[in-house]
Automatic annotation (TrEMBL):
Gene that this sequence comes from: vioA
Superkingdom as given in the UniProt entry: Bacteria
Protein name: dTDP-4-amino-4,6-dideoxy-D-glucose transaminase
Gene Ontology BP terms: polysaccharide biosynthetic process
Family to which this protein belongs: Belongs to the DegT/DnrJ/EryC1 family.
Catalytic site positions: 184
Organism: Pararobbsia alpina
Broadest EC class assigned to this enzyme: transferase
Location of N6-(pyridoxal phosphate)lysine modifications: 184
Amino acid sequence: MDTFIPVTQPHLPPLDEFLPYLEKIWESKLVTNGGPFHAQLEQSLCEYLGVEHISLFSNGTLALITALQAMKITGEVITTPFSFVATTHALHWNGIRPVFADIDPVSMNLDPEKIEAAITPQTTAILPVHVYGNPCEVEAIERIADTYGLRVLYDAAHAFGVRKNGRSVLEFGDMSVLSFHGTKIFNTFEGGAIICQDAKTKRRIDNLKNFGFVDEVTVIGPGINGKMNEVQAAFGLLQLKHMEHIAASRARIAERYRAALQNVRGLMLHDIPSHSTRNHSYFPVRITQEFPIPRDTLYDEFRAQNILARRYFYPLISEFPTYRGLQSAARSNLPVAVEISRQVLCLPIYPALDAQTQDRIIDIVLATAGLKQHAS
């Protein structure tokens, strides 16, 4: 059987590079609760990402839940159905009602016009997602938020290192949340972070991620245990040293896909505007009706050959039992998201994906499209 090819996998530096970090943790006996590697990673990430205030978490979902709590969001929040389900779960865990709005057919992010149409007297915030690392229309969303007095929390799980018009996308909105899960371009095995705009808010977030403790006898609120441990932080510091290689490898793989597949009829490539940087966190394509076989048939062909191309995001969040009873979850309210969720397929992309393996993936697409196989 051929080697299993995942849609993504973490970059793992040589073990001998990681062992000195583990030895220092072992010697210090400081394994969690804000140790030296934790503090060092926060500082290093601020410098790398061009932000001032960052708070590390054990995973991105806890970061989203805590960000909503820190912002004191209640009522209804407008969000996208085209995302990983953790986006909406974070609202659910805070007792907030999600209101789904449709997405833009090109960017696949929340459509600002649909956001404005979904606002009610109960709306308190907007939760957009920078899907595949493609920046949202942040200026339009900011205008809407200012007009209606709404808060904005960005799910930036895919957007590590992404910039728009020279600015980090993490600078926009009231807060942004990153994921450092093993599938992300920068990872700490599991992990995440909240980026906020001032030191006072960071202190509140840091308290909330530690059960609400301010000191040994003072608890300011019903916080959670969201702290990143020292092993995660150490791995993150090591990952940062390899980010130039990681970024270059992903860019090279993405360009090989683009060159080989750009003229395939019925296959749409995902274009990112020139004013935005690409981090190549995913390589989505859309299989339209003009392609010789349906998306799911191509997906099954990949699986038969041990290749895990992913229908990401399918189904829509709004189609899961937990949320499909909401009025805003009706398919008639989300025609663009429904169509794209039935077309999208993310092809494997990760630094260790070699040219020969990538050619296998490309050849499957070309063969099913009735075209000559790719020549390396």
